[in-house]
Amino acid sequence: MTAKQIITKTAVNIGRLLVAVTFIFSGFVKGMDPLGTQYKITDYLEALHIDWMFPDWSTLVMSVLLATAEFAIGIFLLFAIRRRLTSKITLAVMIVMTLITLWIVIAAPVKDCGCFGDAVVLTNMETFIKNIILLIFAVLLWRKPLEMPRLISRQTQWVVINYTFLFSIVMSTWSLWYLPQFDFRPYHIGANIAKGMEIPKGAKQPKFDTTFILEKNGERKEFTIDNYPDSTWTFIDSKTVQTEEGYVPPIHDFSIEDMKTGEDITQEVIHRKGYTFLLISPHLDFADDSNFGSIDEIYEYATDHDYPFLCLTASTEKAIRHWQDITGAEYPFYITDETTLKTVIRSNPGLLLLKDGTIIRKWSHNDLPKMADLAGKPLEKTEIGKMPEVSAAKKIAGIISWFVIPLVLLTIADRLWAWGAWIRKKENSNRILSTFKKKRKMRKKIVAGNWKMNMNLQDGVALAKEINEALVADKPNCDVIICTPFIHLASVAQVLDSKVVGLGAENCADKAKGAFTGEVSAEMVKSTGAQYVILGHSERRQYYGETAEILKEKVELALANGLKVIFCCGETLEEREAEKQNEVVKAELEGSVFHLSAEAWKNIILAYEPIWAIGTGKTATSDQAEEMLAYIRSIVAEKYGNEAAEETSILYGGSCKASNAPELFAKPNIDGGLIGGASLKAADFKGIIDAWKK
């Protein structure tokens, strides 16, 4: 491997790790807080004035799908699963995300993009720079996807794929039903609300204006705290706007107001000693009322023990009355900003328990405390009244045990199996090598040129003359064959010394003669002076639909007319990545030439051509080529016996050049090359031929 290749591979895998970790983290925090992601999606839709087109359920589905997609892309990059497809998807996602963040930087529709949820808050410009860096690496991964080594074999990739999607969806569903396992917001368990609202001494204080929207007799007006009207007005909504910059404490928008009098009771609540229950519902219109019975029981328990129980909402009086009608709620209702309530708890409704102004418990409406756990005791004497002992470290350990450990164990098991299979394959290959290495001298060494559809008649004759003169002057240490288009055959035959350079055709028909316009029969080829014909080339299979049965007919006609056959076989990139190269090659030989008699087989030369290395500049490594040719020789031995296999010349055809020919030809089972582009220049072709002298 050259220094440039090492640098490229290193850059690709550094980028792969960076992009993978970013996507995994981004997808994880989004999946852990699907409601928070939904709120951010809604912010974008509102900025575009199209939020009316998307009901809440659709934005929630978008949230879960976005988190799952990001998490899956990250895992697939990390494990190098479906490398080419994953790299294309990654590039497409990064192009879209970069364009979106460019729009955010210019238009500033939101304060932060929310790419990492509440875990890491970046400015819009920081997000744009981050996306530019990731986009650069995404382009590199798209250009060089196969430079990413797999952590797990192709056969077991489906396990990781399914497990990743399942884990992400279950994680989001769990967080929706209960609460996010990790709470990165300022209202997390253990946070003291009063302390979160403190501003350091000397720090410049920002200024906010709160506007209240109220209605009376069908008329809506906006009021401030200074001119708040009497109770004959109905509260509709409120909004808080920052008017001056300054130090913003983690909790800066928490307020509790009496909806009838406008009295602010925030300080009274957050500084109260003892326990306080806060029922949180941004909008009672959309609150889940399936567990109202449990809420009422907790309210009655709180009343019995003199614990305040308040419902904080941003709902209208009409919505509150409707909630009271369907649930029988007797607890008092107070007004708090909608965005604040959505930030406090990801549940509608949700329940908080404060002790001395510190949040010690949070419950989803699906997981409210059971009265049996309280058993009529005061909170001081119950587990519910104490701060939970589950630490962030334990939660992280739980996530690792559920997701990371199974994948690590799967990877280790898969690698051990792969290494074992590789060792067994290597041992088998070595046995084949030792069997045939001794007899290599008996086999003909061959370099054959395949001109394909190149050269007019005059240029072709000139090239043939140049090759012939060079080899007459400097005798080759191998058999040399040039296979030309049909129009060249007769003319080229006249300028070649057949003792030095053999002549072959690139194809022949599968019919002996008849009304087959444009076809050239094996008999016609033979009549030009040619001795060889190439059959089964991948380009004939791919572009002209030549099947195993068609090739079988061609082989028989070629041999019947005294031509020696250079028969090609090889696999595509997809087949090699699926580790099916052996079965593909074996099927091609069995379908077209393995029916021949042992006598007819003596006129067959095999050429292994990895299709992914033809005309691409890519070359199978010498070890890969040797392994395949050793395998081919072994199945020839199975069919015709060791002696026939020892005498069969097998060529390598796949971007063979003068620079890599010596290494390839040094392998014991590689008997030469079927050369494409490099055979169109006499000097290049001669350089490959001379590799047999090294």
From TrEMBL:
It holds the Pfam family MauE. Substrate binds at residues 450-452, 615, 655, 676-677. It catalyses: D-glyceraldehyde 3-phosphate = dihydroxyacetone phosphate. It comes from Segatella sinensis. Its EC number is 5.3.1.1. Belongs to the triosephosphate isomerase family. It is found in: Cytoplasm; Membrane. Residues 10-141 form the Methylamine utilisation protein MauE domain. This is Triosephosphate isomerase. InterPro entries: Aldolase_TIM, Methylamine_util_MauE, TIM_sf, TrioseP_Isoase_bac/euk, Triosephosphate_isomerase, Triosephosphate_isomerase_AS. The active site is at residues 537, 609. Gene3D superfamilies: Aldolase class I (3.20.20.70). The gene is tpiA. NCBIfam families: BT_3928_fam, tim. It is an enzyme of class 5 (isomerase).
